Amino acid sequence: MIFTIGTIALGQVKRYNKFYIETRFFTAPFPIKAKETLLVDATDPNHVKKHLIRRHRQSVIAGFIRMPAIMAAVVLILLAGERQSIPLAGCAAGISLIAIYFQCFYGRPTADEKREMLLLGKLAGIYAVAAWFETTECEEFYEELVHQYRSKFAGADWKMDLLHQQVRAANIPLLYGLTLFNALLDPSPGNIDLRNKAQQHYAALGY
Question: Are residues 39 and 73 in the same domain?
């Protein structure tokens, strides 16, 4: 644990396959203000990559709570031992449980998030959830997946394939990835419906 006045990264959450989210905070020495949220790619420890993403609520909450909760638990445990106080011991136990929860369990990826992270990891080499990215990054991912689809399936139009049920195991992962970003960029009822259809096909493969 580092106590400093300045900007440090806190609030690590959604850790999966050496990717995780963190938020940079201004501290003095405890977290005062959340700045930006980053997706960290630590697959290569010698060349860690960081991608700016949307502000992540769980990362911000973890960043604000973890350090003060640990410190409060330590202080209360010491005070309870020094004063032999049962009420202080009860408070110390409660704060310690909160600290343990936020340190060890809070911010783990859900089963649905893991499924999407694994999909994007296979398609784009980045284990993340599409909704974490800003619009510009979503557009870039979408264009890359469109290029992949056309190259892999002889110039086919992914929307036409999905609408006309030209769906097979080989193109379902790409279809689902495309619909995720397409629905984020244009959340019309039609695009949401396409995403839901692709999600059903993807789930039918056993993912």
Answer: yes
Distance CA 35, CA 25 (A): 5
Give the list of residues 6+ apart from residue 53 with CB closer than 8 angstroms, or none: 21, 37, 38, 39, 128, 132, 133, 134, 137
Structure pTM? 0.90
At residue 95, what is the residue type?
A: I
Residue whose tokens read 């379902």: 172
Has residue 1 been placed in a domain? no
pLDDT tens profile 134-181: 999 999 999 999 999 999 999 999 999 999 988 999 999 999 999 999
Cα 42 to Cα 64, 93, 113, 114, distances in angstroms: 23, 35, 19, 17
Residues forming a β-bridge with 51: 39
Considering the domain boundaries, does residue 169 fall inside one?
Answer: yes
Per-residue pLDDT at 46 exceeds 90: no
E strands in 46-204: 49-53
Q: What confidence score (pLDDT) does residue 5 get?
A: 80
